[in-house]
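User: Can you write out an input/output pair for a complex, sequences first and structure second?

Assistant: Here is one pair. Inputs:
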Amino acid sequence: MLSLIVFLPIIAGLIILAVPASQKQIIRIVSLLAAIAQGVIAVLIWRHYDPTMAGIIASPGGSPVGSFQLIERIPWISLNLGSFGPMTIEYFIGVDGISITMVLLTALISIIGVLSSWTIQKQVKGYFILFNLLSTAMMGCFVALDFFLFYVFWEIMLLPMYFLIGIWGGPNREYAAIKFFLYTLFGSVFMLLVMIGLYFSVVDPVTGHHTFSLVAMASQENYLKGAILGPDSTMWRTIAFIVLFIGFAIKVPMFPFHTWLPDAHVEAPTPISVILAGVLLKLGTYGMMRINFPLFPEVYHAGLYVIGVFGAINIIYGAFCALAQQDLKKMVAYSSISHMGYVLLGLAAANSEGMLGALYQMFNHGTITAMLFLLVGVIYDRAHTRAIDKFGGLASYMPVYAGLVTVAWFASLGLPGLSGFISEAFVFVGAFTSTTTRPIAMVSVLGIVFGAAYLLWSLQRMFLGKRRPDAAYDLEKDAEGHEHIHFHDWNGKLDLDARELTMLVPLAVIVIALGIYPMPIMGMLTASINKLVTVLAPVAISAVN
Amino acid sequence: MMHSLIQLSIVVLLLPLLSFVVLIFFNRRLPRMGDFVGVGMLGTAFAISAYIFWTVIVQHYDPAYRIAWNFTWLDLGNVPGVGPLQVKMGIVIDNLTAIMLAMVTLISLLVHLYSTGYMAGDKNYGRFFAYLGIFTFSMLGIVLSDTLLSIYIFWELVGLSSYLLIGFYFEKDSAADAQKKAFLTNRVGDIGMWLGILILYSQFHTFGYQEIFQNIAAGKFNLSNGWLTAAGILLFFGCVGKSAQFPLHIWLPDAMEGPTPVSALIHAATMVAAGVYFVGRIFVILTPDALHYIAFIGAATAFMSATIAITQHDIKRVLAYSTVSQLGYMVMGLGVGAYSAALFHLLTHAFFKACLFLGSGAIIHAMHHEQDMRWMGGLRKNMPWTFATFSIATLALAGLPLTSGFMSKDAILAAALGFANVEGGGVFYLIPVLGFASALMTAFYMGRQVWLVFFGESRTHLKPAEAHHDEHGHDDAHGHDDHGHDDHGAHHGVHEVGWIMRAPLVVLATLSVFIVFSPDPLDGAKGWFMHLVPTPSTVVKSAEAPKTAALAATGGILLAEASNDAEHATVSATPAAAPEHGAAAEAHGPVFSDPRQAELAHAAHANHFTAIYLSSGMVAFGIGLALVVYAFGAIDPEKTAQAIRPLYLYSFNKWYWDEIYDATVIRGSMLIARALAWFDTNIVDGIVNGVATTFRKFAFLNAGFDKYVVDGAVNFTAFFVQTSGAVMRKIQTGKVQTYLVMVMVAVLGYFAVYLVQLMK
Amino acid sequence: MEMFTTIGLNHFLTISAILFSLGMFAVMTRKNAIVILMGVELILNAANINFLTFSKYNGGMAGVMFSMFVIVLAAAEAAVALAIVINIFKTFKTVDVSRVDTMKE
């Protein structure tokens, strides 16, 4: 089941390979069908998932695969390395509470992404092959339970992303693409080193050999005394934690490693922005929750304050930067930085409320930001500009669009009743309850105001008031004296068309529904989050050492 | 099993939401843009609320009446360190809730009805009713909430509906500015409130009022008392934002950009009072220090906005500042411990202020969207109904005896006087002094307003053709100018408004008369409200409450008195307060176990008549002054203004708060934003690009080495091979015979060598 | 004088050597491909004489067997070589080997 959801897009990609490049519609439909099938499987997985099983870690003496679900585990690469012993890399996948939400999110955003890619006209075949490859890699990252497998998916993800930005992007796309690629690669090189170090420090309790299994790595008793990352090697463990953290922090992106994001977003085509903000950023924080923290809990615990400070910087710094932007898409990109700061803050809280808020924020940020980028894409398609000051009064002429923008904008600023509020609220509740991060939480609440400030200000400048004199559209009066607007070079529907509504309305419904009753998603998380908090608690750590 | 009243209250809560959902999606498809949906839903909601009111207030008539119901909203599972943790949401119905429920639905219903006349013909008529629906839903949510989290949720939702309604005419830049300002200012307050909630949650892992109160009463608050004071002040910050208290009062006057019915419903009667209601809900956890802070903020707000209201020209702006001022009274009342009085004022104020705003709406409607009082006058004859109701409400606002406003305002002022006595005077006398001064000014500016609008001759013709500009030229309330002024000259066009707009005025004016609330026009404490909503006993341990020696002495005496009433104290604290004790409690007010509260209650009671005399005198003086200036013309307001021009300008420009905030907070934020954005592009990204450049430079260097040294060696090898090859290829003729000759020579040579060796 | 009266081993070898040298001379100096082929035939026959001679003087039939193979090979070689020559003639319009040097460059 899990393998199917991971590799469906690749199968679709292979089918597309066989379709002639001129058959654009077939290529799109094949991709869409694969994404929808993925979505259906994701929903089935979600329905069959048992939320009482926590996952995260294999309890000592229990099943070696822990309480993960839908496990598939077969040897993949087996080498006899002589004196190093047999090296086994497994194809080991499974889900628990923290990954199933991300699987759902990825499936959802993939469908949205394919729909949003409908307007891509340049080299459709190549585009969709890369898109499907990306989709597989993302899904693979979220279900991989073998570090090596995770790393493979992690790296595979880079390649299509590089080309998707670099070929289908905006005017400055090569710069943005190479920046994204190098930045992420820089992070993953260290990840590779840490991974190898971990391999030689961890022993699978069942086979007695070294292993890449993340489940085995999460149990501190599986670490060899005297190994480079063994329990007594404080210095190396600290260094490993930090470099691994940086590797993931680049993806988040955390200040000061965030500057690839605005460039990548501004240059990337709309669907890629949606994927990038909707799913890829979550890989950073997911990696922290899955790998970085459980593997080095004592370092994590020592670094809570620092992580929290970086979270607060992200929140406030991102909000301020967003306030100053003139380009709508850049503003949304900075808002992503700000919102991912909440995730970091929640992770720094190290209690259930904070962690729950962080993970729920990851899901909500995925849906909300997808909406934001889609909405930016809608106006860019029509006006061919994203300058906030080039509009004005749009609410009178595009009421449906303005309505959906209002929903998305308010969701983003954390209005209660919409999903973003609950996650932000829990992040703050957690961060404030933890005495370590309490002062940080008190500063970070400023983000609530500045978040509202940049969103409302942009809303006002674009949608309220009257058409600005230098706006990107003409004002026309018809025979009856009604005013209409007309975009240059745009012959489609003025307000949202059916395809755009198909993408946006479900997202809006999800955002509202999860804002009113979050348990369908939150209920999946609680057991895993509570387990994770227990595993990370200082008591548990000292018990092992 | 859910109590039937709870079920009904849920229906009341959801009806306006249903109205919103129906109208926002289908208003264009419904006849009359669906206004009957809104009115019908609200009518039903009001009918149910009235039933709840009747059951709770009339039938039970029990100060301790309280039913609650909650459900698990979020289940966080077995949280490490806490145990099983659920986030609950709930509904509480007590006397205050029942009263608020009826008040909110009534005013909302009246505003709905009124709007069918006032908003008729607007192109977004249907959407207006939708917004009113979501507002009413959120407001009822605040009223019914049983937890801090749910009240925060609805708190923000009323902020949203306020945002949407202020910006209803969003094509106007001034309206768009005002809505943004309102939302952001409120958010600043909400931050404080949220932090306050967080402080309490972090200690008890619950949002429920009752659990928090019980935990604090049980002394389980583990942080220092300073944190509890901070929690109280921070929670109060929510009220500062929502109830437009100083220093966050700046948004409310601008909020008058919204349609006038909205001003009546949201920005006068209900939403802005939610702040006071919320502080009332958390009243029991406020420490004395927090209460002092609250009292000072309230008094300062009341005074400041009263001074501003005196000089404003815009009819709605005067009312807006008077609203801020009255809210200041309520907050001050809470701060001085007069919980009942403050909430009583909330209720009475809601009716008469809604009446005033709807009346001003009628005037504006009739005057073809003229809002400047300088160009009105003489409307008494044209609009007798409006005049009558407006006058009654004005008298209530000014606090003349026989009105509802008199009773509530007097109770607050009496408590303020008593509070100053109890706290030992000094700076605390500032609070009653500011309160009485505000009462004077209230009477004056309301007298001025009534006179300018209704008496004298029409001054419409005096209006300059161009939109008038005052000293500062940014009188941004005149947004309706685009409707044109084709009725220059006389009041031909001015007629009384239709019955649908008149009826709400009459209802509200009726509710501003004393008899509705109390049989004794001089003492609100004898009325049903103060009996049913008694001041609750604080849960804060008051070990450190009495500070001064004098205070301790009076406290001792009062304690003795209190112990005499100990029986009442215990009884009235239990839910099943026997009716026969009600009479005793009514005479002396509720009895407290906390010495400070007992003292305050006693002092308020003692100062009751002092306050009546003082405040009546102030009101009489204020109204008299207004008559002297405007009716008899004994003092020329223009000349007086010139004489004290700096003061006049200070008041006219609203103490320059907008300018101050603009220069500091807004510009400061934008400056920081730009600086950080610059920092981001040039420094952070500069470092990234710098690293990239460095690497590229290094790469060039490396490439040079590669090209000249490494590749040089390779190339030399190739060159050597090539050169030698060129020489060697000469031998390769391609002719087999040549090769054969070579073979022969080689063989012969070999033989030769072989032979030579044989020779040896 | 026995050298002249009795035909011995040396006589056969001398004949063979002369025949070989003639063949070698033809192969090395002639330009006509046919003549070169004839030289090759001479060399092969010189080798045959050697085989038979040593077979006679050493006893055993190995030398005879080899010479039989050489005769068969020579026939085959002549057939193939003549075919090549004909092809060379068709391509280059000549059988002069000094002008068939396209492999040189």
